From TrEMBL:
The lineage of its organism: Bacteria, Bacillati, Actinomycetota, Actinomycetes, Kitasatosporales. Residues 11-66 form the HTH deoR-type domain. The keyword Lyase does not apply. Keywords: DNA-binding, Transcription, Transcription regulation. PANTHER family: PROTEIN PAFB, PTHR34580. Gene3D superfamilies: Winged helix-like DNA-binding domain superfamily/Winged helix DNA-binding domain. Residues 326-349 are annotated as: Disordered. This is DeoR family transcriptional regulator. SUPFAM superfamilies: Winged helix' DNA-binding domain. Pfam families: HTH_11, WCX, WYL.
Amino acid sequence: MDTTGGAERGTTERVLTLLGLLQRRRIWTGPELAGRLGVTPRTVRRDVERLRALGYPVHAGQGVGGGYQLGPGQELPPLLLDDEEAIATAVSLLAGAGGGAGGAVAGGGDAALRALTKLDQVLPNRLRHEVRALSGSVEFFGQGGRSPVDPEVLMKLARACRDEVETGFGYPSGAEVRLRRAEPYRLVASDRRWYLLAYDLDRDGWRSFRVDRMTDVSPRTWRFSPRAAPDAAAYVQEGVASRVYPHRARFLVHASADTVRDQLSASAAVVRPRGDDSCEVLSGGGDLDFVLMHVLLLGHEFEVLDPPELKGRARALAKRLRSAGATTAAPVADGTPAGQEHPGAGPGV
């Protein structure tokens, strides 16, 4: 029996394991590495030479405090990742390319996209196909710093979307956490949070779930046939910006959609273009007057489209504003108009 191939695979796997150990900790002694790898120190020395031949700068120190250390340098080849690490890295980069996970670094989305492209070029075929399939399970709207979530949960949900398998999880409902059964469709990252768009089997309808509120996520083994689904990013954004509130309103704003989007958080309102110089704004809130004031403060001419009763509130607000602007303040005894600081008065006086 020819065992050469098996021996070569064993050596390769051991050398990759050695590389992973050197990347994980700054310095290892020879006996420590030998113990971890289950080989002799002499074999460790041979494997170190194999890494050096591949271009990895492995330094060896003598005496107390000495040992093997992986050094930095331009000759260092790309980091080797196992399957799980490669997929997790790709999904994280995908999140950055789609709007910036963190969002605080200028140009972070472009950098993530370049890194994702390079990773795609060096991945084995089996992983490249999986990463590309997973990338089809994630969508985005808005840019900004998202609340952190467990990456393992993200991976489970992304795979469940890709594999079209029913998934169970705990989700808060009032004061208790209830088990939900759903057919996961897409992960959606907003400017603030991660969401799962899924078909809720118990409520017989499409729902969006905040990933940070989900517990005990458990993909099942049985598959489902995909249903006709809404646009994931648009559905989640509209839900976050309006459907979750008791009151919703639509406005026609006389400014370009790009201008208004720069003024509003993607989670606060949906902005749809209506030509080059106007757009429709959909938003919600606990109080319609608050929503009205929010649009007023954008500083553009606008019209109320829905609901009809909000037009009356707008007229009442306009009347109050005109009245406030027309009021003449009565002078005080020293001749200083009311509301104007007396000459020489300091802060807090």
